[in-house]
Amino acid sequence: MRYWRALPALLALGTGCALPLDDEPTASEQPSSLEAPLTWEPCTTRARLLKDIAPGAPGSEPESLVRGEDGLFFTADDGTHGRELWVSSGTGGAGSFLVKDIRPGLDSAEPNELTRVGDKLFFTADDGTHGRELWVSDGTATGTFLVKDIHASPLELGPSGLVEFNGRVYFAAEDEVNGRELWVSDGTASGTFMVEDLYPGDDIFSPGTPGSSSPRRMTRTPEAFYFVANVGRRVKLWRSEGVPGATPVFDAVEDNVVFNMTPVGSGPLFFLVDNDEGEASLWVTRGTLASTRELRFFPGAYPHDMTALNGKLYFSAGRARGGLEGDPAGEELWVSDGSVSGTRRLKDIHPGPGDSRPGSLRVMNRKLFFAADDGVRGRELWVSDGTSGGTRLFKDLEPGAAGSLPTELVPIEGTLFFSAETSGRGREAWLSDGTAGGTRALTEIAPGAASASPSGFIRSGWDVFFTADDGTHGRELWALPFRPEDRCSR
């Protein structure tokens, strides 16, 4: 259901109305496989405050921005209804509205884990009666409802770990019989059920209590999804195709922590394992227990910002144990092709023992963009083609040792959006077309040296949405018109 257009008569009704999105591209406007892809561009450098949802300095603090079928879902607190589900059609539609006051009055339903599945939005919420349960919305008040009261007690943890796979949502939940296990839903009560009981029988630590495998850290790939779950005294990484018969691909004693699962296309899945020492090893699997192996142990801080590019994994890490004597121990940019010998430091950006601390690794136009500090020019924007020689400073936005401290890097349709801090302007929104000359700041939102601190960039419809604080309205929802080719003039 394309809800923005489906109910135009509700536009004047305010709360819970459907919002028509202006000029959303139709199927005939999408390029065919034989045509060149559309080139998207910002229509202006001035973003627009969409609505002062909570008037005054505190702001409504929008969170969990998720692209809907035609508009943007998010949560916000307007100071009257508590934190609830909201929707916006952006700069060209009817506006931004509360979808439904799920928990009436000042109390908050606290919608969480917003997950789009086709034309539906799944999330968890607490209506004050059923406890935290699974909800679904089509963007209208009448189309927003409790899917199923899975556990009768309102004190239970509720569903968690929502992930979309093959047009349904999978998650962890607990009923009164089976403990906390893997569930699935198509958005109906009858289509919401436990997939399988991975830990049948009683808990070995608490006889008389159903065993709970507690699925968590759901991560999907094109062919399957992976999650961590316990059985007795063992912790396992499981692979599932959404039907009974999930198989473990990693098995260890319960004090191990398995996390940061990162797929590389349709190939290997990389993940980290902390064996209860506060340090992690990098592992890889190709979907079977036999194909799972440890690649390298990293002392100190965990490897982070694991990102796939051209069939390899790129990440930030310090020197690995067992490295050559004299290797610098600083935190630098690493790469792995899934082999032990192919897991190596890509480039010592901050030469010697210093840390360049690569962060916010994102891929655009088959290149890796990230923030790093070379020890001379401060923390700035860098780019890499996946080779040491092709890893270089992209642009020095704030000359000198302080650096512009780029964060919030998000590639959107060939344009990189990010936040950076420069002298006299504070922290504001920037964008780049992938060239140094095409890298520029948007019009200031918080004038002068004050910082708007934009975050959460996401495209929906004809806009790039984000949150920012202009110093007057508090943190609210903003949008920049962003359209393909010549559509800005329409």
UniProtKB/TrEMBL annotation:
Signal keyword on record: yes
InterPro entries in the cross-refs: ELWxxDGT_rpt
UniProt keyword terms in alphabetical order: Signal
Domain of life: Bacteria
Segment forming the signal sequence: 1-20
Protein name in the entry: Quinoprotein
Organism: Archangium lansingense
